[in-house]
Sequence to fold (121 residues):
Amino acid sequence: MIVLDELIYASKRKYRTPYTMTSDLVETIILPYVTVVEIGEEEYREAANLIAMLSLKPSDALHLATMKLNNIKILISKDKEPDKTPNLVRVWLTVPLRYNIMLSGVCRAPRVHHYHLKAPL
Fold:
C-alpha cells in the first residue's frame, strides 16, 4: 500500500519536488500499476480497534486497517509509527523523485532505505 498523500507531501517537503512533478509521477508510473482501494465504515471500525490496541495515530490506524481488510502486506511509507504493528512489511525509497524522473527523462531504480519484515496480517 502506498499512501499517495504521504508520497506527495514528503516529496515536496523533504526533496523539494514540485507538486506537479509528483502528480505526473503518480499518474504515469504509479496508478497504472496499482489498485486504488476505498476506505469506508468497515475500515473505520477496524482502525478504531487498532487505535485502542496499539495506541496508533488515527491516520496510521486507518491505513493499516485498510491494508488488513484488503489483504495488503506491504506498506510504502517513510513514517516509522506503523513499525510497532505486528505483521507488516514497510519500505521507503531514498532517491528523490526529481532525480528519478521528469527533468532528465531517465528513470533509475530507487534504492530501498528501510525494509521491515514481520509476519503477515
Summary: The chain has five helices and three strands. Confidence is low (pLDDT under 50) at residues 97-121.
